[in-house]
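Protocol step 4 of 5: obtain the predicted structure for the target chain.
Materials: sequence only (see below). No template structures provided, no constraints applied. The aim of this step is simply to have a reference model before the mutagenesis design in step 5. Sequence pasted as it appears in the construct record:
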Amino acid sequence: MSDKTPYLGNPQKTIEVIQKYDFAFQKKFGQNFLIDTHVLDKIISAAEITKDDLVVEIGPGIGTMTQYLACAAREVVAIEIDKMLIPILQDTLSAYDNVTIINEDVLKVDLNKLAEEKNGGRPVKVVANLPYYITTPIIMGLFENHVPLHSITIMVQKEVADRMRMGPGTKDYGALSLAVQYYAEPYLVANVPQNCFMPRPKIGSAVIKLTVHEKPPVTVRDEKLMFKLIRASFNQRRKTLANGLNNSPELHYSKEQIAEAIERLEVSPSVRGEALTLEQFAKLADVLLELEGK
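Step 4 output (structure tokens):
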């Protein structure tokens, strides 16, 4: 493959590689390999990869998207949890000298250190095709650990993509919506039907791009406290905001402090958390700190 043209991305090639290595899909890793070149092109285009970029790819699978990324980027670090895929990746990516493969759970990788060593601490671009069960922990880990990020372009379950974009009062609005919107600007790139994957998932997927804010859209004195309030209010979303906060083991405020803080928001005492905006959660956190005398 001297011209380095990506050659995976169609079903025949994927089947060839899987058969050659007698690879068995692991249900526990939620593996679904992308087999549609149009979707791959859309992801690369949306991620706006240039020859200046260090790209961190989470879950490269057999290297289908990695090949595309390697052609577009300065350097790619591919983090794959499944050790059975490592020999396959070493084979499919052998023509690319700008790819490093790490066999590890991404939640255990020090991405701040990686950005420092390989990118001089400058923001990296993350690209991923993530299984449903691990999407939120990975995205929140990237944000909460303040990894230097330019953007995250990811394939996720369609309903998760919807959740990231929704506002107050909608059924999909929740803690993930608020967290994503605090750290980044979400943009839906494409909906992806089941037949674009092998094996076919039971549900539709979507590609979403999260462009990280240079500074968050709201200012809050204690970011961690704000997210504790958000989690508490959505853990029991049918309950009122006051009950959600009173019942949370993460919070230690008295009923009186909580009632006073909600009153200062100038909302109904029986308001539910799902009706609050990001700005209101930030104000609630600041008022509670004030009531504590901090």
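Step 4 remarks: The chain has two domains: 11-212, 223-291. The radius of gyration is 21 Å.
Proceed to step 5.
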